[in-house]
Write a structure and sequence with these properties.
The chain is α/β, with parallel strands linked by helices. The chain has helices spanning 16-32, 49-60, 76-84, 101-110, 115-130, 138-154; strands at 5-9, 40-47, 68-72, 92-100. It has one domain (5-154): Metalloproteases ("zincins"), catalytic domain (Collagenase (Catalytic Domain)), CATH 3.40.390.
């Protein structure tokens, strides 16, 4: 299996620490969801408020910056089929996650926890959206939130 994350920087400076956090968290997510041998990867773009606001406006008709956007490539049942029928000849992107580093910094301060914890949460949150989970309805949130928290707990990334 090749790298599970393709990380791009859009109008922000490349940062090895960001990449270390992203790869650690995604490795755990892939392990937890039995994707290690599924020949999938995630495209991650790290950017600023201006760019994520434009993307949010274009794709969601919301003209303000947000912390994370996720664009899945597969439906939940398709992902289950990929996991069940892992094929060496198949290699594809699970989806795209776009993260606003400025918002991550602001929210880490606002919630009084580390930058690592906030970035890790954005990665886990975006990952589970790519896996077909949501949090709009309460019953959906009750499925998604425990999965997110389990990953962070197992990595010992805690709220401070």
């Amino acid at each position: 299996m090749e790298k599970i994350a393709q990380i791009e920087y859009l109008d922000i400076t490349k940062n090895d620490e960001y990449e270390k956090i992203i790869n650690k968290v995604l490795d755990k997510c892939f392990q937890e969801e039995n994707l290690k041998e599924a020949n999938l990867y995630i495209s991650i773009t790290l950017t600023n408020k201006k760019n994520i606001q434009q993307i949010n406006k274009e794709y969601r008709s919301i003209d303000k910056p947000t912390d994370v956007l996720s664009f899945p490539m597969f439906e939940k049942d398709e992902i289950e089929c990929i996991i069940k029928n892992q094929n060496d000849n198949f290699y594809d992107v699970l989806g795209d996650i776009i993260i606003c580093i400025e918002k991550v910094e602001e929210q880490a301060k606002e919630y009084r926890h580390s930058f690592e914890r906030e970035l890790s949460y954005m990665i886990v949150h975006g990952f589970y959206h790519l896996m077909g989970y949501d949090h709009i309805k309460e019953e959906d949130k009750e499925k998604m939130r425990p999965k997110e928290e389990k990953i962070l707990q197992e990595l010992n990334i805690k709220r401070i």
